[in-house]
């Protein structure tokens, strides 16, 4: 009959990662210093009405030096607050839900929604 021993999965996983990193000779260090507000990353969803509008918005964002990602609902734009201020000068990083649409994008963009950065847990 099969018997198993209860273990803490988190501990076992942590041990496995340490062994793998040791075998691969990786040296990973993490900085716990807080980021300045200007270096914090945000993700913006620019909602558009049609594919043609999405394409024109993406072209305009590329001209401004951004690397937008097409989505079904519009355009995903990610970056640090400092670089996103080129598009939205009033951006502070404290915005929680939505932002005003810049005048040069207003004909195509219906709304801009703010999302905080996704976090990775190690």
> What is the element string, with H for helices and E for strands?
HEHEEHEE
What is the overall number of helices?
3
Number of extended strands: 5
- Structural class call reads alpha+beta
Alpha-carbon Rg, integer: 21 Å
Task: Please describe the biggest sheet, giving its number of strands, its sense, and whether it closes into a barrel.
Answer: 5 strands, antiparallel
Query: What is the general shape?
Result: elongated
The CATH architecture assignment of the domain at 37-115 turns out to be 2-Layer Sandwich
Q: List unreliable stretches of 5+ residues.
A: none
Could you tell me how far the N terminus lies from the C terminus, measured between alpha carbons in angstroms?
36 Å
Give a short synopsis of this structure.
Helices cover 26% and strands 21% of the residues. It has helices spanning 9-23, 51-63, 81-84, and strands at residues 41-48, 69-70, 74-80, 98-99, 109-115. The protein is elongated and about 55 Å long.
Features:
5-stranded antiparallel β-sheet, alpha+beta, single chain, 122 residues, elongated
Protein architecture, described:
With 122 residues, the chain is α+β, with helices and mostly antiparallel strands. It has a domain at 37-115: Alpha-Beta Plaits (2-Layer Sandwich), CATH 3.30.70. Helices cover 26% and strands 21% of the residues. The chain has helices at 9-23, 51-63, 81-84, and strands at 41-48, 69-70, 74-80, 98-99, 109-115. A five-stranded antiparallel beta sheet has the order 2-3-1-5-4. A hairpin with a 3-residue loop joins strand 2 (69-70) and strand 3 (74-80). The model has no long low-confidence stretch (mean pLDDT 77).
